[in-house]
Specification:
globular; Rossmann fold; alpha/beta; 7 strands; 7-stranded mixed beta sheet
Length: 259
């Protein structure tokens, strides 16, 4: 991290600074997503929670930088950044590909002796069940097939995908992120000590309830599973309830760390 805690670095966005909040939430975007996806979360939780969002290379203001096509490399960078903000308890929250980046970041923080207070993951099967990320966007797929897959997940405004210039700009990033998600392989190791809360959708085409519940194998600490109606981006239609799960998880983790 190249700037003070009052600002941000290339990797971190802080949309609603809450310097007096007792807890931080670091959010990790999905494949093809950017830090701005988490702006509503930051807006809703301020000033009680200081929300940070990770900005991966290759998108928005980092568009000129090459994408990173490896989950573990993304996590290594993220862990270094999170350490700079860990002057107070930190919970990690990742959706879809971001769930894997958050999980691997938590592993690194535990190895460094700076475990996060909690981990929230959504829209992703457990690491031990990982067989590639959503979309299965191999490099052989045409742009039309890739756009159709994105539309099925309902995470991107259809109007954006109707604009050929916007599609031309975002598809390379999406392909790179999908490559990172599809190539991820879990390294067996001890379970986290960090409590894990899992969120999943009943109609998610890439994660069933058993695969979501298998996250239980990855923590020796408290575990919870919340099932919402909806598909892969159920968290958009259940935003308020998702925030409650997150804040309840933070509160329990904060209480446990205060004992």
């Amino acid at each position: 991290m190249t700037e003070t805690l009052q600002g941000t670095s290339a990797w971190i966005r802080r949309f609603q600074p809450s310097p007096d909040a007792p807890h931080r939430l670091v959010c990790f975007p999905h494949a093809g997503g950017a830090a701005t996806f988490w702006f509503p979360m930051a807006q809703a939780l301020a000033p009680q929670v200081d929300v940070l969002a990770v900005q991966y290379p290759g998108r928005q203001d980092r568009r000129s930088e090459p994408c990173i096509e490896d989950i573990e490399t993304l996590a290594a960078h993220a862990a270094e950044e999170v350490l700079a903000w860990s002057d107070r308890p930190v919970t990690l929250f990742g959706h879809s590909m971001g769930a894997m980046v958050a999980f691997e970041t938590a592993r690194r923080l535990e190895e460094l002796g700076r475990p996060p207070a909690g981990l929230v993951v959504s829209g992703m099967r457990a690491p031990s069940r990982a067989r590639g990320g959503p979309g299965r966007a191999g490099t052989a797929e045409t742009a039309e097939e890739l756009v159709a897959g994105i539309l099925r997940l309902q995470g991107t405004d259809a109007a954006v995908l109707d604009d050929p210039e916007l599609v031309r700009m975002i598809l390379p990033t999406i392909r790179s992120d999908y490559k990172a998600a599809e190539s991820y392989r879990w390294r067996p190791g001890p379970p986290l000590r960090t409590p894990i809360a899992v969120l999943t959708g009943t109609e998610d085409p890439h994660v069933d309830t058993e695969q979501a519940a298998a996250w239980r194998e990855h923590t020796a600490g408290p575990f919870s599973l919340t099932v919402f109606t909806g598909g892969h981006f159920f968290l958009n239609e259940h935003a308020e309830d998702v925030r409650k799960v997150v804040t309840d998880h933070i509160a329990r983790s904060f209480q446990a760390n205060s004992v």
